[in-house]
Amino acid sequence: MINVLEHTDDLSALQEAYRVCRKNVVFSVPHEKEEELGHYNITYHPYVDPTHLRYYTMERVTATFADAGFTMDEICFDGPINSLGLFLRALHLPRLLSIGVGITVNRIPGIKKYYMNIEGVASRDATFRVSLNPNFEK
């Protein structure tokens, strides 16, 4: 369920996913807007998508999946991205250049990082575990 839940009645969609899935659901949803981005006059494109009904915090994602019967196996922020990377994308520089600069800048201590999406894996069976992160403890 990649970039789906924010467009629908999320609980109903997850209840249907619970009914038809065998093991787990992989998901990605937009993170609730970072207020500091507005300070820099930067708007990340999901925040102006008129079809988005909501944005998510970690707590809301976890609660919504639990309400539908799922157990959260892994949940994490997608990113990080920093304001320089966003600025370079806004200049329409080649995508790989802006990503490369963004990754390099993210390694500098003290640089503010922004997390645009929340992604993870939820399962029907609490004994089944899968990880997107090879360092995730099972």
Short description:
With 138 residues, the protein is an alpha+beta fold. The chain has five helices and five strands. Helix 4 (83-90) packs antiparallel against helix 5.
Question: What does this 3D model show about the protein?
Answer:
It is a single chain. By secondary structure, this protein is of the alpha+beta class. It has a domain of 85 residues: Rossmann fold, CATH 3.40.50.150. The chain is 33% helix and 19% strand. The strands form two sheets. The chain has a three-stranded antiparallel beta sheet with strand order 1-5-2, covered by helices on one side.
Known CATH architecture of one domain: 3-Layer(aba) Sandwich
- The average pLDDT is 76
Shape descriptor? elongated
> Into which percent range does the helicity of residues fall?
25-40%
Structural class: alpha+beta
Task: Name the CATH class of one domain.
Answer: Alpha Beta
CATH topology of one domain: Rossmann fold
Say how many strands there are: 5
**Sheet with the most strands, sense and barrel status:** 3 strands, antiparallel
Termini gap = 22 Å
Number of helices: 5
Topology of this protein?
Layout: H1 10-20, E1 24-30, H2 35-39, H3 58-67, E2 71-78, E3 81-82, H4 83-90, H5 95-106, E4 113-114, E5 117-123
Antiparallel strand pairs: 1-5, 2-5, 3-4
Helix pairs in contact: 4-5
